[in-house]
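[stage:ingest] chain + small molecule (NAP)
[stage:ingest] validated
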Amino acid sequence: MISIGFLGLGKMGSVMAPLLMEAGYNLIVWNRSSDKVDHLVSLGAKAAPSPAALASSVDVVVSMLTDDAAICAVFEGPDGLLSVPVEEKLFIDMSTLRPPTVKHIAQQVRNKGASFVDAPVSGTVAPAKIGKLLVMCGASDEDFKTAEPILNVFGRRIVHAGPVGQGTVLKLVVNLPLAVYWGSLAEAIAMGTQGGLDLDLMLDTIQDSSAALAVLGLKIPTIMGEPSPVAFDVASMKKDLLSMLDTGEKFGVPMPATNGVLETYSATIDGGFADADAVEVIRYVTEKMTQPK
Ligand code: NAP
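[stage:predict] done
[stage:export] tokens:
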């Protein structure tokens, strides 16, 4: 069985990496904050001291990191993945990045004689834990064939969107309506609250209406204020919105709705909620941005 290296044991990576061992792969892990590797090591993974050491000892490298800066640091930094010979290895990045960054890193990987596919995901920590993500992949046909069995470990469905970079564009397409949905739900709930409606009555009615989204039911406890683990935070939503706006501008698409919700998420971050779950935007708009009656 081939050896796989996994970098980035954050909210998503920490639940995705163990699935590779369950599928029978030899797993080597690296994380910037080294304490996060302990759990994986206790499950049987080996820990690499640096991205370079990890790249030297595996056939395939999977990364799940915050953003473009993280990816550039891990691939191109000193002791980075590309600081050692990597000919014929396969790099699968599953983070949500900006399309130009994906293309830049893919070129750096190709310059070293290796292959790169982008494979960002839709779905959050709960589906990630059980290998039921929706994976959107940008890859050559040949690289897709090699990557697919590994992506199947993480996903209930793997969509081959086109060449490298297209997985990322598709991920932005999927995430844009979701970002706008939570922002618009925040305004709707704030309006209803000011109009004297109870939160649970509004959520119950929305969930039973054509304005319901598949994920709404899962998020209702968080929206109602029940303590729940953060899945996808407000800062990550803003990162994705900025990427959508960049991409829209490049393609000549006006995006007033996306710009509007960006303001709401930015205000929520400025209010101190960067690390809160993205649906906390609803509470922020209702409780902090709305003028008391
Ligand atoms: P997270 O919990 O914040 O974890 C981020 C990971 O990136 C951590 O391992 C972190 O290391 C690492 N990292 C950040 N900056 C770094 C740097 N400069 N150098 C090296 N490592 C760095 O994020 P997440 O929620 O797992 O999300 C990961 C990616 O998946 C993001 O692109 C996100 O947009 C996407 N995504 C997330 C969800 C979700 O529901 N959470 C769903 C779909 C897609 P440390 O541990 O040292 O901080």
